[in-house]
């Protein structure tokens, strides 16, 4: 299934009807999935939805213990679970809310962050499997990159 997912594609893990899963299950299934998406399947995204209070808690703890982050879609909004710095969450939120891919320069202006810090944030989000980078040309014709998250 993951092999068939195109760059920019989203793997949705629907936990509807699953009342409980334990920490070790969350660690094994979601940890391996997130690691493969960030490594072997770069540019693709994974999101989990319909978590109960218990599955949410176990998944968040499992991801945190592994030093990983996963996106949860809840009532139409995206939240990050696991090990996530507020700056990463802020940058991710802007990417999710953007109508189209945006450059690092534009993001740095929107968030009032210097360009070096923004590039570091974006690199981190890409390594976490939470952002995608595509090569484009600026209005002046120079090569640049634009960043996006899933919708």
Residue-averaged pLDDT? 91
The rounded Rg comes to: 16 Å
Largest sheet: 4 strands, mixed
The structural class is: alpha/beta
Count every helix, treating DSSP H or I runs of 4 or more residues as helices: 5
Could you name the ranges where pLDDT drops below 50 across 5 or more consecutive residues? none
How are helices and strands ordered from N to C?
EHEHEEHEHHEE
Extended strand count:
7
Q: Which strands sit side by side, in order, in the main sheet? A: 1-2-3-4
- The coarse silhouette is elongated
The total domain count is 2
Oligomer: single chain
Q: Roughly what fraction of the amino acids lie in strands?
A: 15-25%
- In whole angstroms, the N-to-C terminal distance is 20 Å
Helix content: 40-55%
Structural overview:
The protein has 151 residues and is of the alpha/beta class. The protein has five helices and seven strands, in the order E-H-E-H-E-E-H-E-H-H-E-E. A hairpin with a 2-residue loop joins strand 3 and strand 4. The chain is elongated and about 55 Å long.
Give descriptors for this structure.
alpha/beta; 151 residues; Arc Repressor Mutant, subunit A; 2 domains; 7 strands; three-stranded antiparallel sheet; 5 helices; elongated; 42% helix; four-stranded mixed sheet
Question: TL;DR of this structure?
Answer:
By secondary structure, the chain is α/β, with parallel strands linked by helices.
Helices, strands, pairings?
Layout: E1 10-14, H1 23-38, E2 45-49, H2 53-66, E3 69-74, E4 77-82, H3 86-97, E5 102-103, H4 104-111, H5 115-127, E6 132-137, E7 143-148
Parallel strand pairs: 1-2, 2-3
Antiparallel strand pairs: 3-4, 5-7, 6-7
């Amino acid at each position: 299934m993951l092999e068939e997912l195109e760059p920019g594609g989203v793997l949705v893990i629907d936990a509807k009807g699953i009342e409980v899963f334990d920490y070790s299950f969350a660690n094994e299934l979601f940890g391996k999935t997130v690691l493969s998406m960030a490594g072997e399947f770069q540019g693709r995204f994974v999101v989990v939805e319909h978590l109960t209070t218990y599955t949410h808690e176990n998944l968040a703890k499992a991801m945190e213990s592994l030093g990983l982050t996963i996106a949860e879609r809840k009532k139409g909004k995206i939240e990050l679970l696991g090990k996530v710095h507020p700056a990463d969450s802020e940058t991710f939120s802007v990417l999710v809310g953007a109508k189209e891919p945006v450059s690092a320069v534009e993001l740095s202006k929107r968030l009032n962050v210097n360009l070096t810090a923004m590039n570091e944030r974006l690199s981190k989000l890409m390594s976490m499997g939470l952002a995608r980078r595509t090569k484009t040309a600026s209005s002046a014709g120079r090569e640049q990159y634009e960043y996006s998250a899933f919708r």
